[in-house]
Specification:
By secondary structure, the protein is an alpha+beta fold. It is built from three helices and five strands; from the N terminus they run H-E-E-E-H-E-E-H. Strands 1-2-3-5-4 form a five-stranded antiparallel beta sheet, covered by helices on one side. Bound molecules: guanosine-5'-monophosphate.
């Protein structure tokens, strides 16, 4: 995997505002927040995309995400928030080291805006079976 700014942050070669760390996970404030409290949670394990992450690293992140989110909410006074996780440039990934965004939604409207163009599910039976068969 190519070097990223997050690799440098993990090695302490770039500064960041750390809010949480353990043997597997680091959380720090986003340098360009879209709302107050916008926090990034990353695995220490090098992986570009979520589907490449080991189950151990994914479990370690899953264990602490609710706790970090509670702290962000308590510190900012927000009650609503989004969890965003981008994979691939067309899906808005800019930094190619797995990361989860915790993004508070504030009363002033700041936070994540989502364009959600839904359609009607067409081939649910077939598609669900195809996906299940790949697990
Ligand atoms: P992505 O679009 O890849 O899901 O989001 C990458 C995020 O990383 C962006 O929100 C961006 O502001 C943040 N970011 C990029 N470089 C740095 C950095 O050097 N330090 C911090 N704290 N955040 C960064």
């Amino acid at each position: 995997m190519a070097e990223t700014v997050f690799s440098k942050i993990l090695r302490d070669e770039l500064p960041c505002h750390r809010v949480y760390e353990d043997a597997h996970v680091l959380a720090f404030l986003d340098i360009n927040p879209i709302s107050r409290g916008h926090t990034l949670v990353i695995p220490r394990e090098p992986a570009e995309r979520l589907e490449e992450l080991s189950e151990e690293a994914a479990a370690a992140i899953g264990r602490v995400l609710p706790r970090i989110a509670r702290a962000v909410l308590a510190a900012t006074g927000a009650t609503d928030w989004n969890l965003l996780q981008n994979n691939g440039r067309p899906a808005h990934q800019d930094v190619f080291h797995v990361h989860f965004h915790i993004i508070p939604k504030h009363a002033d409207g700041s936070g994540l805006g989502v364009g959600w163009k839904s359609s009607k599910l067409q081939d649910g039976d077939t598609l669900a079976k195809e996906i299940a068969a790949k697990l």
